[in-house]
Amino acid sequence: MSEAAVDFETISRVEQFYYREARLLDERCLQQWMALVDESLEYSMPARFVPQPDPTLQDTEAFLSVERELSREDDGMGAPLRQDGYLETFARTFRPFKSNAWSECPAPRTRRFISNVEVQAMEDGRLLTYSNFHMFYSHRGADNHTYTGGRRDVLMPVDGGFKLCKREVILDMDVVTVPTLALIF
């Protein structure tokens, strides 16, 4: 996959897409958010672990690489925390509208901050993006929580906007101590 630089206008449009996405999710406009998602969506959240040091990689950047800490579905290092397609994501966004969704009632309060957006053009016309997030989460008068991490997305240009085709969420936490990972990051 060859990545190429993109112009400032495209970068600005991608940033606006992410800011709008964060606002829609924070305002609980989940159906509007689903309109930003392509039906080919792959949404994943690999688990992180502490890998054994590999002496053959010593003195190289690969020795410290985040990639070595991530579990993927087919690498034998354990299941990812989340591996969803479009239908699973749709079901997750539709669930809060059900009267029997006790864990969603009342709805949690969230606030997402998106930063450090990088955009690269891919050979097939889609965009490979990297971004960081910081999310505040409060629910049912219990302790407040924060989530931080990075996202690796693939966006497809559509009708002057974008559709989210792929998202990999990489949480910063080594030990999961938050009440839920069923959020959209």
Automatic annotation (TrEMBL):
SUPFAM superfamilies, A to Z: NTF2-like
Keyword list, A-Z: Aromatic hydrocarbons catabolism, Dioxygenase, Oxidoreductase
CDD domains in the cross-refs: ring_hydroxylating_dioxygenases_beta (cd00667)
Molecular function as annotated in GO: dioxygenase activity
Record-linked InterPro entries: NTF2-like_dom_sf (IPR032710), Rng_hydr_dOase-bsu (IPR000391)
Family matches, as Pfam families: Ring_hydroxyl_B
Metal-binding keyword on record: no
Pathway where this protein functions: Aromatic compound metabolism
Domain of life from the UniProt record: Bacteria
Any one biological process term the GO annotation gives: 3-phenylpropionate catabolic process
Family: Belongs to the bacterial ring-hydroxylating dioxygenase beta subunit family.
Protein's UniProt name: Aromatic-ring-hydroxylating dioxygenase subunit beta
Provenance organism: Mangrovimicrobium sediminis
Lineage: Bacteria, Pseudomonadati, Pseudomonadota, Gammaproteobacteria, Cellvibrionales
